[in-house]
Amino acid sequence: MSPQEQTMDGENSAPRTATTAVLKPSDPVEADMLQVGGIDFDQHADKELTVSELIKGMAHMGFQASAVSEATRIIDGMRRWRDPETGDRATIFLGYTSNLVSSGLRSTLRWLVQHKHVSTIVTTAGGIEEDLIKCLAPTYLGSFHLRGADLRAKGMNRIGNLIVPNSNYCAFEDWVIPILDAMLEEQEASRSAEEPLVWTPSTVIRRLGKEIDNPESIYYWAYKNDIPVFCPALTDGSLGDMLFFHTFRSSPKVLDISITRDIREINSLAMAAKRAGMIILGGGVVKHHIANACLMRNGADYAVYVNTAQEYDGSDAGARPDEAVSWGKIKATAESVKVHAEATVVFPLIVAATFAKPESKQV
To answer: Of the candidates 180, 264, 274, 186, which has an alpha carbon nearest to the alpha carbon of residue 230?
Structure first.
């Protein structure tokens, strides 16, 4: 008898080895497991499907659809939370990278700040200057495939599929240099004062938001609503170029900008928070700067990450929230999720289903 015949239950039966492998019985499904489901558009045949209904329908869809729905639930929780004794709200830290300000997502970020939906902001130098530059001249849609050499010859700068004429940065220089002159004069005039003026990245940004005086600007509204904006890498962009050029114009005097006072300020905001929530779009310095501030209070209570980075290179950008738990930057009991998606696609949907819902417009 062959080995195959020894594993058969009868002449017309499949080999027992194969059936045992293929038809392995399952353990009972745990009681709290959810069934996969999706959106039944027939239920909305006679009315328009709202964004909130769309995202609710994505909750059990799986993959990143479920992550978007979970992010919406967590953000809704952090914005609705109130201290039962004082009525204080959660402190919401919003972080985003410069490319998102270059994109049309800037309008969503501006709206959040205009309506006081966030407590503080952390961004990069580009996240500051791109907002201000858009008040002076527009950014245009282009293509990811335009040749760099051709663009350089025409004085055009590419950000993904966005095009920024280099003349925009020339206009920025014309606008910002006189402001830096005035700030230097104020600094020098205060040297004999009991408390001399010390500029920090956040106070520089506040001043620029005041000077731009344009309601399309994120930082105009941050100034108007007294929302601090932190930028630990303020010199890493066109604004740094302008500060560099200004040192030659002002020599031997120099506009001094202290980062030490800002690190105390953002850490103090985190420590004073009754509850702390993080909404971080992108990675790098903005992600870690917020997380590290929340370490000072033994972790954030809520965390939502939205980015496309992977964790397999050990980068902070790619790290999931659970890695921050190991450092004490997110509480072990926190509600957290990472959405593996490009922020311009999903964040407007999340905002529409949370902060922009009719009952939440007044904060």
So the answer is: 264
Which 3 state secondary structure label does DSSP give 49? coil
Q: Alpha-carbon distance 215 to 224, whole Å? A: 10
Residue 14, CA atoms < 13 Å, CB-side half-sphere: 7
Sign of CA dihedral 132, 137, 143, 149: negative
pLDDT in tens, 156-202: 999 999 999 999 999 999 999 999 999 999 999 999 999 999 999 99
User: How is 158-183 classified by DSSP, letter by letter?
Assistant: EETTEEEEHHHHHHHHHHHHHHHHHH
Which neighbouring-strand residues pair with 335?
302
CA-only gyration radius of the chain, Å: 26
* Residues whose CB falls within 8 Å of the CB of residue 63, separated by 6 or more in sequence, listed in order: none
pTM of the model: 0.94
Residue 12 confidence class, pLDDT cut points 50, 70, 90: confident
What does the angle CA 286 – CA 292 – CA 294 come to, to the nearest 5 degrees?
110
Is the bond preceding residue 252 a cis peptide, omega within 30 degrees?
Answer: yes
Q: Which residues are catalytic?
A: 329
| Count of CB atoms situated within 10 Å of the CB of 278 | 30
Phi, psi of 135 (to 5 degrees): -75, -15
